[in-house]
Structures are given as C-alpha cells and as structure tokens.
Amino acid sequence: MPALSLAPVKPQPMSRFGHVRAFLFIFVLFAPLLFINFLQALALPLRFIAPIQERRWNTLMASIYWGYIAWMIEHANNIQIDLRGDQLDPLENSILICNHQSAFDTLLIIVWARRARRVGTLRFFAKDVLKYVPGPGWGMYLLDCLFLKRSWEEDAINIQATLNRFKKSPIPYCWVIFPEGTRRTPEKLKLSQAKARERQRPQFEHVLNPHPRGFATFARGLDTHMDSVMDMTIVYPDGTPSVWGLMMGASPRVQIHVRRFRRQDLPAEQLAQWLEQRFEDKERVLASAAADAQK
C-alpha cells in the first residue's frame, strides 16, 4: 500500500532569500505575542474574583492573535486549504480529535476554527514543559489550557480540576486533542506498530495507534456539557511540511476532512474502541490520498 511521504516539503525555489524571509516571518508572527501575553496577564487577578470575565478577556485575546496568525498562514504563503465536511457550530462545546504529523497541524486547526468564527474558544492539551515557554506557552497557560506530565496520577487530578472549571463556564469551548500523543515519524510509526502487534490491535501505516485514556476521561467528565466530537483528518498530499519550510516560503497543498459526531451518538462505555475506529477511518482517508498521489 502506498504511503504519504514523510519528507518535508521544500521551500519554493523562487525564495532566493529564504532564510532572511524566515526570520522576518518569525518576528512578524511572534513579536506581537509577548504583548498579547502582557494583556492576558493584566486580567490574571480576575481568575480569583471574576473567573468568567477573565475567560472572556482571554478568549478575546486569543481571537485577535490567532485570527492574525490564521490570516498570515493563508495569505503570506498563498496556501490552498481544501476544507471538506462539517464545521464547528458557533455555540457548541466540542472536543476535536486530530491526527498529528507536523507542528503545522496546530496552525491549520487555528485556520479552520477562524473560518467558523470560533478561533478564540480553542483550548489545547499540551505537554507540561510548554507552559514555561515565553509567548505560546505563557499564552496557553493564561488561556487555561490543559498541560499534561505523562504521569496519569498527576494528570488525572489536573484533568478533573480543569473539567470542574469549564463545566461552570457559559463560554463555548473546543478542546483540541492529538490522541496519538506525538507526531508521526518513521521511527515512532515502527514503535507504534510493534506495540499494536503485541496487544493484537490494528496496525496502521499513516497514523499512530491512539492513546484513548485522556480523551475518554475528558469526554466522560464533560458529559452533558459536551455537545459534539469533531473528528479531523489532515492530509498533506505533497509530503509533511515543516514550520521552518513554511517560514522560508513553502506552500503545501492541504486537505482537512472533518466529521461531527453528536454526544448522543457516542457509546457510553466503549470510548476507547470508538476512538480506535476513528483512527481506522483516518487510515483509510490517508491511504486513499496516498493512492491518488501515486497516479
């Protein structure tokens, strides 16, 4: 079966000053973020006396900055994004599950949410170390994103505390989860396949086997406060882009496939199996794209 290339997309050859462009692009993207962090921090005292107002303020800050990022991604490189399937409802509380191939995946999710006018309501599952990174990490911390330490005893407590806060919030949210837990690379794919053989689970070529515990715990915890699960599959027909390549001028083709599942349609007890079935669906979508790329 053909597989989509894991080789990074090369910058366009016309970008003679690609490295200079990349540094300028990084400055234009990230210099405003520290100012946004400052504005976010101004509202931090409200977390203890008026948490809903603090969340509204941070949602506004995220809408402004992430909206700016989405516009830059689409227009600076003239990236053609082919959106297929369902869109996020303006008022729904959702969980978004997505395959993970590149750091660019997160930027595409931001573009997708901006088109639905929901970009400020995104919240991410992220590695704990990220919250110490000035700019994106500080911003996500002030947005009340969920940082995981890969220790279930600690993460379970953190997840429950986050659930308690968001179940009280009248502001819609969309939680973004990459159930594979890491980006797909050739080495990680081989490791995932070996573990799948040991556990007698399906073996994939285009995705890693998902880790269901975090998703299942969060979905069950939200319960009636969750309206839907958005199942997103990102396809890079020309190969997986790197963020540095994008800064230098690469303009990859992108397909984004999205399916919406109502909360009522999810199984009550077998969310792990349900999630595995979604990754079987992703495998089929990516395999079909790989076959088309070979024609």
Written overview of the protein:
The protein has 295 residues and is α/β, with parallel strands linked by helices. It has one domain (18-294): Glycerol-3-phosphate (1)-acyltransferase. The chain is built from ten helices and seven strands. The chain has helices spanning 18-42, 46-49, 51-76, 104-115, 136-142, 152-167, 186-198, 212-222, 243-248, 271-294, and strands at residues 81-85, 94-98, 122-127, 146-148, 174-177, 228-235, 254-262. The protein has a seven-stranded mixed beta sheet with strand order 1-7-6-2-5-3-4, sandwiched between helices. Helix 1 (18-42) packs antiparallel against helix 3, helix 3 packs across helix 4 (104-115) and helix 8 packs across helix 10 (271-294). The longest helix is centred in the first third of the chain and has 26 residues, at 51-76. Mean pLDDT is 90; it is low at 5-15.
Oligomer: single chain
Contiguous low-pLDDT stretches (5 residues minimum) are: 5-15
In the CATH hierarchy, the third-tier topology is known as Glycerol-3-phosphate (1)-acyltransferase
- Rg is 19 Å
> Residue-averaged pLDDT, rounded?
90
Q: Order of strands across the biggest sheet?
A: 1-7-6-2-5-3-4
For the record, the CATH class is Alpha Beta
| Number of helical stretches of at least 4 residues | 10
Q: How far apart are the first and last residues' alpha carbons, in Å?
A: 13 Å
At CATH's second level, what is the architecture? 3-Layer(aba) Sandwich
Number of structural domains: 1
Give the helix/strand class.
Answer: alpha/beta
Order of helices and strands: HHHEEHEHEHEHHEHEH
Strand residues, percent:
5-15%
Helix content: 40-55%
Largest pleated sheet:
7 strands, mixed
How many strands appear in the DSSP assignment?
7
> Which word captures the global form?
globular
